[in-house]
Design a protein that fits this description.
single chain; 277 residues; alpha/beta; Purple Acid Phosphatase, chain A, domain 2; 5-stranded mixed β-sheet; 11 helices; 10 strands; globular; binds fe (ii) ion
């Protein structure tokens, strides 16, 4: 099976709705639904506010009408904005996108989707950040309940006999290697609060997660940082062949990049990045 991996489209900001439409048109033309699955690792929308929430839902529905299977993991912007998440907005998003987040299953994470050769497991990296003190900055926090449930799921026979693909929004690894704007490029406050703190803002329980999934997961997919890097060298320390950050497919806050998505072949463990003209 081949996975089309998109992330961080931030629909509602600028012309991202039009960009997502162009990307999905390209996906359908270039790949077609046969043998493929469309996977979005969150920050689908730029804000969890109700207004504008239907725009990307309509685009996903159109892909389903064309024969696509679509899976979605929620991001921090889907539940709030860049500074916080809001439990009421989160509930609204989970309800509006239930078809893509949970399929026909009960609304609870982890979510398991089986294909002939793959077990796809979706996590909610916002789940343990709903409390008043945790919800600020939205770094990502799975919580013990979710990691324990994942641990049990990875032991199931129907999972173990397939390629295991774990997908979620937040970034488990500590740092990245991208050219970062300096003070003169982005302004003092932007550099101080955004770039200088970025290396510290990653999934709070990344360590127990990686201990749980080591040697049990084949492909790890995520978004959030908008870097678009291949972390497979880091993933291989945990026995994970592919670990990929999708970047922002609509290149939000990354204007040096091109609109893009990844095509991941789970049978061969290879991938390539498609840049949308
Ligand atoms: Fe994002
Ligand atoms: Fe995010």
């Amino acid at each position: 099976m081949k996975i089309i991996h998109l992330s961080d489209t931030h629909v509602g900001k600028g012309d991202n709705a039009d960009k997502l439409q162009r990307i999905l048109d390209d996906v359908h033309r270039f790949c077609g639904p046969e043998g493929h699955l469309l996977l979005h690792t969150g920050d689908l929308n730029d804000t969890g506010k109700t207004e504008g929430m239907q725009a990307s839902r309509i685009l996903f529905d159109a892909m389903v009408d064309k024969g696509w299977q679509v899976l979605l993991a929620p991001g921090n912007h889907d539940y709030g904005d860049s500074l916080h998440i809001d439990p009421h907005w989160a509930e609204n998003f989970r309800t509006t996108y239930a078809r893509y987040i949970f399929g026909s299953q009960a609304p609870r994470f982890p979510v398991l989707t089986l294909t002939d050769d793959c077990a796809l497991i979706g996590l909610d990296t916002n789940e343990a950040e709903m409390g008043f003190l945790e919800r600020w900055m939205a770094e990502g926090f799975l919580g013990k309940r979710q990691i324990d449930a994942l641990d049990a799921l990875l032991d199931q026979a129907e999972v173990k006999q397939r390629k295991v693909v774990l997908y979620m929004h937040h970034h488990p690894f500590f740092d990245a290697f991208a050219v970062r704007p300096g003070r003169g490029d982005v302004g003092f406050y932007s550099q101080l609060f955004s770039w200088n703190t970025r290396r510290f803002r990653r999934l709070k329980d990344a360590y127990p997660l990686m201990q749980c999934i080591r040697d049990r997961v084949d492909v790890l997919l995520f978004g959030h940082q908008h870097f678009g890097l291949d972390y497979s060298a880091e993933g291989q320390r945990y026995g994970i062949a592919l670990a990929l950050d999708a970047s922002s497919s609509t290149c939000t806050q990354m204007d040096t990049q091109r609109m893009r998505y990844r095509i991941i072949d789970t049978a061969t463990g290879t991938f390539h990045t498609r840049f949308v003209p």
